[in-house]
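#struct-help
A.M.: can someone run this one for me? Single chain, 321 residues.
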Amino acid sequence: MRMLKYVLKRIALMFFCLFVITTITFVLIRILPRELPLEKASRAVVLARWEALGYNKPLIIQYGIYWKNILTEWDFGTSWYIAYNKPAWDLMTSRLAPTVLLNVYSLLFSVPLGIALGVFAAIKKNKWQDSLISTLVILFISVPSYVYAFLVQYIFYFKLGWLPLQLYALADAGNTYFSWKMFHSMIAPILAISFGEIAGLCRTTRAELTESLTSDYMLLARTKGLTRAQATRRHALKNAMVPILPGIIASFLLIMGGSLIIEQIFSIPGVGQLMIRAFNTFDYDVFMLDCVFYTFIGLAAGIVVDLSYGFIDPRIRMGER
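D.P.: on it. Structure tokens below:
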């Protein structure tokens, strides 16, 4: 019962924070100047739509209309510049698939490699292998992902010619995101995103596993006749995974925000690129929806991570005093 109360409390606080951030974003966006489309034929339609949304009324009335349309019609506004007269929700959901695929591929590549390097560094603690891995981890964590993007383009496109410069168009890849040609064009952005994730996981795994290897229960396991490899696999690694696995869950949710610049560099038609285009073209309804989407992702990540501790380790009970 306490766990249920804790979950409901966290969800309520999440939606309260979402409401506050949405309110601030709405006010900041609506006070910006709006420009009519250049085509005279479409101006009358746009003006009529803006009048229905109360753009000529006080902000508090506009905000009330905005929430009324969301709660009653699931209407987050309309795109007038990126896709003329198309609902903002439909435009964003149509861009969601490449963003999710890019992040799934990145995690499938970075999680096993990051954990394996962290385990290897912990086993070889204070040896040259550990020093080399730790130095590389510091280097890769310190460099932003967009720098890796340019390096990947330079090495694998300009020098070696192994990978395309940008993502293939959907029509060129067989009208599906699950073709080999599309995956081949995604390898470059996957690498650009994965370097930082690999380094972060490696550092966390090494720190947690090093602490576990020096614990008393490891000495007890060795005295019972287990080899170092058996004790590490059955006990140390299992306990070290308690703080690592929630981090992997958070990475999947939070990495979608980090791929915003990567999508722009590699021309990936995802949610991140859509947000940048919406800002540059003053397509405010689309930009507002993207802000709400990324805010919700960040808040949901915090709740999922907190709750995952209790499922991974039954000894942890969230909400207990």
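A.M.: thanks! The longest strand covers residues 78-79.
D.P.: also worth noting: The beta strands are 78-79, 86-87.
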